[in-house]
Amino acid sequence: MLEKVASGVKRLWRYRLIKAFVALWLILWGLDRAFPINTSVPYSTLVTARDGQILHAFLSRDDKWRLYTELPEITPALRDAILFKEDRYFRYHPGFNPVAMLRAAFRNLLSGRRTSGASTITMQTVRLLEPRERTYSSKLIELFRALQLEWHYSKDEILQLYLNLIPYGGNIEGLKSASLLYFGKPPALLSLAELTTLTVIPNRPSSLRLGQNNLLVAEARNHWLTRFRKAGLFDEAAITDAIQEPLTAYRRNAPQLAPHVSRRLRAAQVDVPIVRSTLNSNVQATAERLVQNYANRLRALNIHNAAVLIVDNRTREVVAYVGSADFSNTFDGGQVDGVRAVRSPGSALKPLLYGLAFDAGVITPRTKLADVPTNFNGYEPDNYDRRFNGSVTAEFALANSLNIPAVALLKEIGTPMMAASLRKAGFATIRKQASDLGLSMILGGCGVTLEEMTQLYTGLANQGSVSPLRFTSSTEPSGNAVQLVSPEAAYLITHTLTQITRPDLPNNFDNSYHLPRIAWKTGTSYGRRDAWSIGYNQRYTVGVWVGNFSGVGVAELSGANTATPLLFQLMNALDYNSPNGWFRPPKNLTIRLVCPETGDVPGEFCKNLVTDYSIMGVSRYRRCQHQKAVFTNAAGTLAYCAHCRPDSGSVRRSYLNLSPEMAAFYQSRHIPYELVPMHNPACERVFGMTGTDSQPPLITSLNDGSDYFISPKQPTDMALSCQTADDVQLIFWYLNDKLYRKARPAETVFFRPRPGMLKISCADDRGRHSDLRVMIRTE
């Protein structure tokens, strides 16, 4: 009977204990849900290179150096030392050590004062997260918070949080901050003596000040090293070396490399304690040094700044980012980020235009373009050297950065198509300016950034595929790549930009520079405010901008002589004599014979044929018509058409078939060539010689659709001029469909305008004509 009673009592107590445990657990669970512990801490931001080297460190939001220590940085030696000193049973207790608490309470009661503490690392972490007055009620809260930490985090995570928060005096918190600022190295590289030093300071951060009380710190360090020796924590030899190691710690400045990109990445990832960039620390340091030295040499020319962006073509990763020559130079705008500053590109966008023209089948490298004075509806561009070259090949026009052929190509391709391609390539300012862009955009009449330009050329180095650049290693390769031009067009651009017989080489480059094998293009903006040089090989793309952030132009500033030397220095430092080979032509790119006079498929009068690249199924197949057959009399003084050609006595001859602008250029430069004889005056059909390829007169003054203002008090004459085919002997000017005057093709005609809409017509003696309309207004 007694056994049954005892068994019942035992079950009753067991039941009550279970109920009490469940009730306690529910209470604690409810408190945990009602009062969650906040472990979010405003850490300092670290920007690292791809290899993990720290490039730049920033203060936290509360102005503390509180660097985030990662778990792999907590070495076994560091862990053993900190646990031995602070909490030997850390791995075993639930957040508090009841034995240590009882022992501390007993000692404190005997002495009547606090002589011993019992705080575990978990409880110390709670105090660092939530500082409170040292009272018994605070102790109870700490116990509860310690339990919460243990519930929600592993032991390693709690130790990591503790090491991130321990104080080292002033505004330095966390072991990694102290390691970097006092020893100049991350925790993983600390010696035993150094890590022991950092374990003893948090208990006395005010008196043990590194750099000020090093002797006192060394005594405390050696005291604990001796205790480590007695406990057998480390090898005897390691302890002996650590005790003998001199303490030379002092306060260092935080790393401040790559300032522009570091600020950019920090702003993009505000709450990320460690931003892992794609920068190569060695390449970044080399680029910063070369840019600063080069800018120092340019100061005598009143040129004060430069920016550089270097991209690995295989991964699209930015390996070097130099926003200005000297970040600390506030006088010259050193804190302006030249990589993202909107500037005029000059001629640096021309390769894309030619690539679009290749893909449209409009041109091939040997296609002849006219580099002659041309009026594009009132826009009359000029070349950089203010010279005209006449008929040139497309590859010559691109390699020599001729302006007029580029504007003519843009007019044929269309500014909307060019602007759309730039928008697809990620040009943000072009997207905003698209509706206002005209033909001048190809000569720099738009806004771009060095980042956008380098991204574009990186696409050319990747067979015409453009995608966003990568600045952080955590960023996945972008899947929204845009095929801006075909691989065939990209190769033709690269092949052309690799030529070294061109004017945008630096002066005397062969005596001063080792020319790397690269494809590159220069650009100089209007007013000589911006100098560009962007080049690439298979491995790297390097973008260089040189100028003044103030926008002040300098007469000596040019892409060739100011930016290209720096490009060559950077390329030689990066990849001189690269073993990676060179770009190979795509399979769809073929070689064909063309006429050297036009670049078209050979016709009847073509001789001395040359080879040219063509894109199969894309490049146009047009017969060359640089000469035309004309029947004349035996003396060659009269030309016959099909309607007036005599049955006998006529001779078939060939004459140059010049466009109106080329004929005008030949005449203005007094270049001799054989003109088509005057048409037989006895012919009854004036349209007999008009063919499908005939060109009407091109009115070069005035401009169609323009408004002209005149003063009624001081009326002035206005000029009429045109360009005609070389078979024209006479032209006729009409004003509002009334004949005004006959003239020779090269003759300028003047008239006195009247207010109102005016129709101007020009007809030649072959019956071809063209019209335009202008509005004459009074001022």
From TrEMBL:
GO terms for biological process: peptidoglycan biosynthetic process; phosphorus metabolic process; proteolysis. Coiled coil: none annotated. GO terms for molecular function: carboxypeptidase activity; penicillin binding; peptidoglycan glycosyltransferase activity. Keywords: Carboxypeptidase, Glycosyltransferase, Hydrolase, Multifunctional enzyme, Protease, Transferase. It comes from the Bacteria. Its EC number is 2.4.99.28. Residues 300-331 form the PLD phosphodiesterase domain. GO terms for cellular component: outer membrane-bounded periplasmic space. Signal peptide: none annotated. PROSITE patterns: PLD. Pathway: Cell wall biogenesis; peptidoglycan biosynthesis. InterPro entries: Beta-lactam/transpept-like, Glyco_trans_51, Glycosyltr_51/Transpeptidase, Lysozyme-like_dom_sf, PBP_1c, PBP_C, PBP_transglycosylase, PCN-bd_Tpept. It catalyses: [GlcNAc-(1->4)-Mur2Ac(oyl-L-Ala-gamma-D-Glu-L-Lys-D-Ala-D-Ala)](n)-di-trans,octa-cis-undecaprenyl diphosphate + beta-D-GlcNAc-(1->4)-Mur2Ac(oyl-L-Ala-gamma-D-Glu-L-Lys-D-Ala-D-Ala)-di-trans,octa-cis-undecaprenyl diphosphate = [GlcNAc-(1->4)-Mur2Ac(oyl-L-Ala-gamma-D-Glu-L-Lys-D-Ala-D-Ala)](n+1)-di-trans,octa-cis-undecaprenyl diphosphate + di-trans,octa-cis-undecaprenyl diphosphate + H(+). It is an enzyme of class 2 (transferase). SUPFAM superfamilies: beta-lactamase/transpeptidase-like, Lysozyme-like. NCBIfam families: PBP_1c. In the C-terminal section; belongs to the transpeptidase family. In the N-terminal section; belongs to the glycosyltransferase 51 family. This is peptidoglycan glycosyltransferase. It comes from Spirosoma taeanense.
